[in-house]
Amino acid sequence: MKFAVLSDIHANGDALAAVERELAARRPDRVYHLGDLVGYNAEPERCVRWAMDHAAGGVSGNHDAVACGRSSGRHFHPSALTAALWAGEHLTPESRSYLAALPAQLAGEGGILLVHGSPTDPDRYICSAEQASLELSTLFASVAEGPILFGHTHVAGGFVRRKDGRVEHIPPGEFRLRRGEKALINPGSVGQPRDRNRDASFLLYDTDDRSAEWVRVPYDVEAARDKVLAAGLPVVFADRLRDGT
Ligand SMILES: [Fe+2]
């Protein structure tokens, strides 16, 4: 079975539309999301509606939790909080209910585990091999037979623990998980990439040969920027789209 994993769409309808076109060509059996459907950008309802209509499942992101009122966002940067609360005001009650019902973790086919930030904390950033090593030694990691799919950092790539215990960075591109190995895999962000590549990013994973492929899709960044500015959202979020930071 082949599935697609989308993370951190962040209310960017233009990026999502480009990814949808790519998905139509790649024809995965299922699509999952890793949360942060909303926040930062200007089309939250469009993106939550997409998840409700097309995703086989997904998990809650920290911005989703604020938008639906499940979290106060007191640890948020003020401008991020502004955008998350704005998203909440521009969602239908149905969409807010969908966000409120999203779980922190979800197990999927092929022994995969979906999380937003890390297996132990949805708000934790996994940025280094040291952090990945700690996460891979948890109970959650030992329960998952397949890779753990995580987002939150908006950086495509991942980490693998080899049979001999070494933990190595996985650059985005193509990767195959061998028997006896454990991996944390990040699809990158659809709607606000931060790895100096402004193209939308997502992942294809094949449970038959345990192979992952990262896909980058150019989209109309200027259209997404214009919507952020027209909505009166913080200008910094428009600029990040152009820079991929
Ligand atoms: Fe995010």
Summarize the structure.
This protein has 245 residues and is α/β, with parallel strands linked by helices. It has helices spanning 13-26, 44-54, 62-67, 78-89, 93-101, 129-136, 139-143, 221-230, 235-243, and strands at 2-6, 30-33, 57-58, 105-107, 113-115, 148-149, 157-161, 167-170, 174-176, 182-186, 200-206, 211-217.
Keywords for this entry:
Purple Acid Phosphatase, chain A, domain 2, 12 strands, six-stranded mixed beta sheet, binds fe (ii) ion, alpha/beta, 9 helices
The strand line-up of the biggest sheet is: 3-2-1-11-12-9
Mean pLDDT: 96
Reading the helices and strands in chain order gives EHEHEHHHEEHHEEEEEEEHH
Beta-strand residue fraction: 15-25%
- Uncertain stretches: none
DSSP strand tally? 12
Q: Which small-molecule ligands are present, each listed once? A: fe (ii) ion
Helix content: 25-40%
**Class derived from helix and strand content:** alpha/beta
Basic shape: globular
What's the main sheet like? 6 strands, mixed
Q: Radius of gyration in whole Å, from Cα?
A: 17 Å
CATH C-level name: Alpha Beta
Q: Span from first to last CA? A: 33 Å
Total number of helices: 9
Write the layout of secondary structure elements.
Layout: E1 2-6, H1 13-26, E2 30-33, H2 44-54, E3 57-58, H3 62-67, H4 78-89, H5 93-101, E4 105-107, E5 113-115, H6 129-136, H7 139-143, E6 148-149, E7 157-161, E8 167-170, E9 174-176, E10 182-186, E11 200-206, E12 211-217, H8 221-230, H9 235-243
Parallel strand pairs: 1-2, 2-3, 5-6, 6-10
Antiparallel strand pairs: 1-11, 4-5, 7-8, 7-10, 9-12, 11-12
This protein binds fe (ii) ion.
